[in-house]
Structures are given as structure tokens and as C-alpha cells.
Amino acid sequence: MMGRAGLATLSIAAAAMLLALGLAACGGGDDGEGSSTAASTETTAPQSAQGSSGSGSKKKGKGKKQGGEGGQSSGSGGGSSSNASIPHNDSGGGSSQYRVKGGDNSVQNFGDEADESERDQASAAVHGFLDARANQDWNEACSYLATPVKEQLESVAEKSEQFKDKGCGPILEALASQADPKLYRKEAAQASVGSLRIEDERAFVIFRGLEKTVYTIPMVDEDGEWLLGSIAPTPLT
Hints:
27% helix; alpha+beta; single chain
């Protein structure tokens, strides 16, 4: 299901079109509060992971840039008039709570379930990104993105004179211009992480968000640190 309120970030494919036309910063495009599109450097719902036996090895993270254990993180603000810390209370419990009988459970069954410590580390990155986005601190938000995601965004920006050589932060800001900042804050406050599924250097965080919708977002292990492999979560329900 793709048409949920919030998560109004444009996909990288859509971003390429808008940036090339010079429309992103001035509010072009139709994606608003009622749309949700994933933008990932890899397949968000891992087709190849269906029926995974969970034989992949786990890799331990070594701490996040922001936040703390148990996902108690907050964006640093800086770009917003409302940069108060956003409290979080992750549910935990593993991916079994999200499995759907007869449904496509490829994310829920991907790799192995992470232990609590590593899930907390990945959760802190997810919360850090959502909080920074809510606080409109775009450079901080970029710090939680995996290198291939930032490189892809910057490659898209090279097609636009307006964003060429601007870096990740201004690009994210332009892509978020369609969304209500208050909605971003609600999304950040309601995100409750319950699972991290890991296989080697890839993983998927599963969490509940607005309207109790279950979302997933891909993660990438870079030098022992879990970073986001997408600029937008994808609904699983």
C-alpha cells in the first residue's frame, strides 16, 4: 500500500526530473501529504530475500552519530524555529509481530533478527534522520544517509544548475518543500522501532508510524555504523 498520509519525500527518480527542470525548490510536482514513495539505492522490499533461511551473519554497529541507546535520539535542530528534542519509545519485540499470514513477508523474514543492542544502534540512526528532518536540519539529516544515497542525490543535482555542487543538505531541503513540517514532526514522534533484520552488511528496520502503519527502511553497514539506504520509508501494510 503506497497512498498513506505523510512521508511526502520525493523519490530519487522524481527528484531527477524536478531538479533537471529547476522546479524542486519552488514547489513543483504533485507529491504532497497524501503520497508516499521510497527512494533507495537498493530494492526496498528484497525480492531475493523471500524465503530467506536467516543464514546471513550479523555485523555489530559501533555507535551512532547522534542519539543514544534505545533509540532515545533527537535532531540537533539548527535549521528550524522548533528544534526541541523529540522523545521516542521503541516497542522492540522482533519482526514476528509484523508478519502477515499469506502475505509478502520478505522483509520480515530477511536475514536474522538483530539483538537488542544492535537494534538500538540502528534505531538511533532512523530516529536521528527523522528528527533532523522534522527540525529542518538538512545537513544533520544527511549525516544519517549511506554514502551511495548521498552520491546518488548529488549526481541527480548535477543535472540542475540550481543545485549543482550544493551538496546533500540543500537537495533534501528542496525535496521536502512539498511537505508540512508539522507532519514531519508527527512522523518523527510516532515512529516506534520494533525490529532490525540483518544479513551481512544489509539490514531493514521495521517500525510503526502514523496511523499505526508498519514501515520499513533499508540500512547499510558502513565501517560498523548502520546508515539509512533510503530517503523515505516504505509502507509494509
